[in-house]
Amino acid sequence: MPVTGRDAKPAFEAHSFLRAARQLGRPGWAAQCLHESLAVLRAVNARPDQVVTLSNVGLAYGRLAQYEESFRHYRQALQFAVGIGLRFEQARAHHGLGRCAAHEGDSEAAARHLQQESTIRQDLGVPAGSMD
Which of 26, 68, 88, 113 would you label with 78, given CA atoms 20 to 30 Å apart? Predict the structure, then answer.
């Protein structure tokens, strides 16, 4: 049976749940749910929402201190966001990549990503501190 846009509704509603899961200190649960949301979004080809979800998976893994996995998801989000022209999500992915690099001790990569995030954010007129 094919998945329709109507079937994707639980994936979109999952984002509110995931925010709550992070607040409860259960980012592993959030990451699992996000992966399920991502599968639905891919099935209905909801490309902008896939970018947002990939960044949220990166954030969840970052909260678990699984920086390699976090980096992988932020990298995918960045590539996807560049491909479809979502500048805010590009900035958000650079922000996450910078945080991952900093946690891994790569200050050069962290500075580069955070500078790219800052440049995009300024171009868009988005205030600092609004990336996640």
Answer: 26
